[in-house]
């Protein structure tokens, strides 16, 4: 049976479910918050994850090796890992904003693999001699799982920074608006009504705007809670990704010694993997020993977000080294 004939259909279903999931999360965040629709986004992501699972299994059966032999398969596995992480943590935390943040990146990875890579790179191929090892599944799967966790946690840190600075700008903008109205309207002797003693009453009487302090405070409290949850969740996920990255690098060193007779060759991929490791080691060290939280640690994690993408994708597209085979075939 030719399982590869199912691949285009599975890709379309997976892409469509991710797209519907992203639209649902954004509409839910903007327009409504009916509780019975909370699981609809997760259902879309679950269907997409199932489609990717069967796609990987079918390629495994047809090629007789774990489907991580080229960039296309690695991107598919990364998209699967991202959707799996999203489902797991969204179910654990019951926070739907995880879907708002994570679904677009999973969609982007799948879209890049499907629409940007040429067809010859999407075809399953036999393994080159260096990849014909039991270390393939151990090393590459752990590395991609670590990338997924690090991308996940770093993206939450980026969202944290966006919310923090957005909140500050909103507060400054509102304060500036209120102060301007007070200066222009409220303290003009001709317009000031001495019988009005409360700021809310004065503002409503002179500008037609009612300043509802409890409602404003409640909105800021909700934003503050989301910000705090993003910081804590990012730390937890990065705390998972870093050990996986460490195991992946160590297993890769052992595999390299078996294949090339050296544990470390300063290949571009190895170098950027080491840079990635140092970035997140600094993040965890400063967080644990220095007590850094909030903006400082989020900035380090945000830098790590871009470094991970350079390590995973940039090196394979633009650098040439021992890891170039199986990703891009040079003419």
TrEMBL record:
- Major subcellular location class: membrane
Which GO molecular function terms does the record list?
heme binding
Q: Which GO terms describe its biological process?
A: cytochrome complex assembly
Cross-referenced InterPro entries: Cyt_c_assembly, Cyt_c_biogenesis_CcsA, Cyt_c_biogenesis_CcsA/CcmC
Spell out where the chain crosses the membrane: 6-27, 39-58, 70-89, 96-115, 135-163, 237-256, 271-286, 298-319
Q: Which domain of life is it from?
A: Eukaryota
Q: Report the subcellular localization.
A: Membrane; Plastid, Chloroplast thylakoid membrane
Cellular component annotations (GO), alphabetically ordered: chloroplast thylakoid membrane; plasma membrane
Give all residue intervals belonging to the Cytochrome c assembly protein domain: 68-323
- Protein's membrane topology: Multi-pass membrane protein
Among Pfam families, the record links this protein to: Cytochrom_C_asm (PF01578)
Q: What does the subunit comment say?
A: May interact with Ccs1.
The name this protein carries in UniProt is Cytochrome c biogenesis protein CcsA
């Amino acid at each position: 049976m030719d399982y590869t004939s199912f691949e285009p259909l599975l890709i379309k279903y997976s892409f469509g479910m991710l797209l519907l999931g992203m639209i649902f999360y954004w509409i839910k965040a903007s327009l409504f918050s009916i509780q019975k629709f909370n699981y609809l986004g997760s259902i879309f992501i679950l269907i997409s994850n199932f489609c990717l699972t069967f796609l990987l299994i079918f390629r495994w059966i047809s090629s007789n090796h774990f489907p991580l032999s080229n960039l296309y398969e690695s991107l598919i596995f990364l998209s699967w890992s991202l959707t799996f992480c999203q489902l797991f943590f969204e179910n654990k935390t019951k926070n739907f904003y995880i879907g708002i943040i994570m679904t677009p990146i999973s969609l982007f990875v799948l879209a890049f693999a499907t629409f940007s890579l040429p067809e010859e790179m999407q075809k399953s191929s036999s393994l080159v001699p260096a990849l014909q090892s039991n270390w393939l599944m151990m090393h590459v799967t752990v590395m991609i799982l670590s990338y997924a966790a690090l991308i996940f946690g770093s993206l939450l840190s980026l969202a944290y920074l966006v919310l923090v600075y957005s909140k500050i700008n909103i507060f400054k903008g509102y304060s500036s608006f209120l102060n301007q109205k007070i200066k222009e309207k409220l303290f003009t002797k001709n317009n000031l009504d001495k019988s009005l003693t409360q700021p809310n009453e004065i503002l409503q009487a002179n500008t037609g705007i009612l300043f509802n302090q409890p409602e404003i405070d409640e909105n800021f409290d909700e934003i503050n809670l989301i910000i705090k949850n993003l910081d804590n969740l990012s730390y937890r996920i990065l705390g998972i990704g870093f050990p996986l990255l460490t195991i992946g690098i160590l297993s890769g060193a052992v595999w390299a010694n078996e294949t090339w007779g050296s544990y470390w060759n300063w290949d571009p991929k190895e170098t950027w993997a080491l840079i990635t490791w140092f970035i997140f080691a600094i993040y965890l060290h400063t967080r644990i020993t220095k007590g850094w939280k909030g903006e400082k640690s989020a900035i380090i994690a945000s830098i790590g977000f871009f470094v991970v993408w350079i390590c995973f994708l940039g090196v394979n597209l633009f650098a040439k080294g021992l890891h170039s085979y199986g990703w891009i075939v040079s003419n």
